[in-house]
Design brief:
108 residues, mainly alpha
């Protein structure tokens, strides 16, 4: 799922930036977009809930959710607009880097 998140950001950079820039989009004016974001977030919540297990407290689930989301969102942002964009460009190296980062994250 993390790879899909980063891939979406890299393949649809305009939409990705728009989704997370409140000064560019107004959820009240575009309720369908807001609802789509809510559905996507619910998928992430379910996945993290499954990873956390049924005994995890709500605060632990929230922390895990933030950790997973922060990783993929930060990676996508660095690859789009940060120093990794210049360093890795748009080639195969970028894809390998994403795979390496996500694999390391899963191993920890």
């Amino acid at each position: 799922m993390g790879r899909a998140y980063v891939d979406f950001a890299l393949e649809q950079p305009v939409y990705f930036r728009l989704m997370f820039r409140p000064e560019l989009s107004d959820p009240a004016r575009f309720p369908a977009a807001d609802a789509a974001g809510g559905r996507a977030f619910a998928v992430l919540e379910r996945l993290v809930g499954d990873l956390a297990g049924p005994r995890a407290s709500r605060s632990r689930q929230d922390a895990l959710l933030s950790m997973h989301w922060s990783l993929v969102h930060g990676l996508a942002t660095l690859l789009l607009d940060g120093p990794l964009a210049a360093e890795l460009g748009h080639g195969v190296a970028r894809g390998h880097h994403v795979d390496d980062v996500l694999t390391l994250f899963l191993e920890r």
